């Protein structure tokens, strides 16, 4: 990629041309060259502000999704600490895949590395600018009740969903069918991210129930190991917020 022209590069030829023209046309030519130089300086000095406004505009366009993903990828541990590891990965993913390509296309590529922390701060602010709905009062505390809760959410999306018996479920807490597609679901009401054990269980359940697709649903996000295994076995990792709109393949697949 060619190096962006510096301010000195941009000023060199106007100054040179203005100096030469002043020898022929006098002070008026020098004044015109001075105005050109001043305009270039003002434009260049304002580039940082335009960069920030562009990042804000991109993040603001996705603020509702960012607010939801922040909630989905965060949780409070048993000691009352807010754990944001999953959200920080999601924030970086959004910046790298959504913000950076637009900035590079618009000629701000040289500012990305030096202003990376500023980009992340702007994305963070956008995620906090929308109040995500509070789920604490409605979310069941009991695991069995959480399974019924997830089944009810699937029914909102048009699935015929039923919970399985605790014994003999072979890793499926909910079995749902829609338009000839069978889905098996592991439901995890956790206070920490779900590990790859749940993914292994639902892969076995998919085979046992002769299902077309499999998902692990949780309120607390997923570990990197679970994400890696899910990607390799084509298992969906979902927050329960995604269930009422679940049609075929979820819009936000786990990475």
From TrEMBL:
Gene3D superfamilies: 3.40.1350.10. The keyword Nucleotide-binding does not apply. The keyword Transmembrane helix applies. It comes from the Bacteria. GO terms for biological process: DNA restriction-modification system. Residues 145-244 form the Restriction endonuclease type IV Mrr domain. SUPFAM superfamilies: Restriction endonuclease-like (SSF52980). GO terms for molecular function: DNA binding; restriction endodeoxyribonuclease activity. Keywords: Endonuclease, Hydrolase, Membrane, Nuclease, Transmembrane, Transmembrane helix. The chain crosses the membrane at residues 12-42. This is Restriction endonuclease. It comes from Methylobacterium terrae.
């Amino acid at each position: 990629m060619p190096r962006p022209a510096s301010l000195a590069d941009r000023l060199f030829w106007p100054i040179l041309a203005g100096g030469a023209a002043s020898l022929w046309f006098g002070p008026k030519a020098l004044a015109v060259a001075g105005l050109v130089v001043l305009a270039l300086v003002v434009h260049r000095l304002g580039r940082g502000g335009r960069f920030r406004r562009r990042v804000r505009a991109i993040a603001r366009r996705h603020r509702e999704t960012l607010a939801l993903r922040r909630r989905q990828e965060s949780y409070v541990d048993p000691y009352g600490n807010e754990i944001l590891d999953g959200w920080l990965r999601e924030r970086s993913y959004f910046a790298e895949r959504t913000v950076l390509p637009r900035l590079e296309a618009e000629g701000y590529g040289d500012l990305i590395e030096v202003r990376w922390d500023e980009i992340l701060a702007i994305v963070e602010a956008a995620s906090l600018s929308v109040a995500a709905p509070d789920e604490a009062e409605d979310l069941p505390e009991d695991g069995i009740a959480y399974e019924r809760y997830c089944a009810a959410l699937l029914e909102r999306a048009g699935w015929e969903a039923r919970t399985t018996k605790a014994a003999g479920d072979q890793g499926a807490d909910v079995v749902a069918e829609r338009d000839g597609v069978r889905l098996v679901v592991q439901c995890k009401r956790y206070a920490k991210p779900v590990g790859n054990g749940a993914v292994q269980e639902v892969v076995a359940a998919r085979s046992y129930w002769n299902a077309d697709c499999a998902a692990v649903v949780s309120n607390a996000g997923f570990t990197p190991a679970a994400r890696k295994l899910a990607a390799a076995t084509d298992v969906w990792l979902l927050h329960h917020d995604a269930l009422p709109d679940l049609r075929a393949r979820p819009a936000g697949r786990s990475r």
